[in-house]
TrEMBL record:
Residues 336-426 form the Histidine kinase domain. This is Histidine kinase. Keywords: Kinase, Membrane, Transferase, Transmembrane, Transmembrane helix, Two-component regulatory system. It holds the Pfam family HATPase_c. One of its GO terms (cellular component) is membrane. CDD domains: HATPase_UhpB-NarQ-NarX-like. Gene3D superfamilies: Histidine kinase-like ATPase, C-terminal domain (3.30.565.10). InterPro entries: HATPase_C_sf (IPR036890), HATPase_dom (IPR003594), His_kinase_dom (IPR005467), Sensor_HK_TwoCompSys (IPR050482), Sig_transdc_His_kin_sub3_dim/P (IPR011712). The chain crosses the membrane at residues 12-35, 184-208. GO terms for molecular function: phosphorelay sensor kinase activity; protein dimerization activity. It comes from the Bacteria.
Amino acid sequence: MTAVLRRALVRHAVITVVVLLVAVVSIASGVALFARQDAHRTAEHTARQVGAVVDAAVARHDLSAAVDPATRGDLDAVLRPFLTSGILTRAKIWAPRDGVARIVYSDEPRVEGETAPYGPQTIDELDADGSLVQEVPDDAEHRFEVEHTRALLEVFTTSRDARGGETWLELYLRVDEAGAVRAAVVPVVAVTVAGLLLLAVLTVPVSVSVARRADRERAEQRAARDYGLAAAETARREIAQRLHDGVLPDLASVGLLLEVARDDGGEGGSAVLGQAHALVEDEMRRLRGLLDDLVPPTVAAGGLVGALEQLAAQLGPITVEATPVGPLPDDLELALYRVGHELMRNAVLHASATTVRVTLESTPDGWVALTVADDGTGFDVGMARADGHVGLLLVRGVLADRGGRLELTSTPGRGTTAVARVPVVRPAVRVRDRVRAPA
């Protein structure tokens, strides 16, 4: 299994897991909420049906005070079938008066006579649709139902007694809310997971194909960049060759002729010819400098450190320090030379630095670090990235091809430190159709 295929499969698996988690959590939350709401609706519907039966018995009795044995017997007879069948676990009848509700009847006689305050909100909720559904709280009022609180819902409905006074019928219904949620969630989640897993399996070839295509594109970009660098190098060498074979010999000949003219001419002519000779010599010096700039020294000849020192001597006040880094691959030395050349050139020409320090060292983890620090004008690193500085972009590109990176630290007015870090061993890249660089 290739590295590209392995990365594609790992990425595909991670995406699949993330999508599964998001889908399962979202769907399960929605279905669970719906299941809870459905359980409440079912409890309310059942309570309304029971309440319709109990209302007839309530309407036959005066419930403004404690119930007498006859009233109790009638109410017990009506509620007993619902209690024994398990439809209800508790029943209470409240008589609300002036903000205080009192229990006038319950199948649990020990709570009869207890009172509880109520507010306008309770009345509004009951008046809205004639019922109120809520979970059974764990408090003293519900001390005889506390062992069932997690499985109970209490439903309030309103009715009228024989005197026309308002009464509240409180019914406790056993509701397996967790079971309802589980029964609703499990099938939906199972179908969702199965569908997403099937989709993930079917899209594996697509992910692998996309990863391979992206890898080929990256390889082609690297090859194209190498081609461009090689082409530029060839162009420089051709220009240097033309200057060496044509311009310099011609200028040298002119210099010799001017010397002869100076020796043969008068005093005035000699002065003019001497000045011309000086100008020609200056031009030759400039052209030789151009030659040195167009054709960089061979890194392999004096090593990377020697090439950097020679470059530093040409550019200006630059100090090169190096610790033993061991033998480096030729392409790595050339890449570091190009990076160092661009960074030192920026420091001298653009940053107006008076002192530049270049450090080359190796790290224990198998990387090489080339540091160029100057005392120049400095700049805003964020602004430089946004502006797309061409030289820095090329440096980052060269380092990225080798699996390295560029770290910039700079403050306007306080200089710049650029650290190029690159591994000694180049990451393996398979390229099917590599662009050939010119020789």
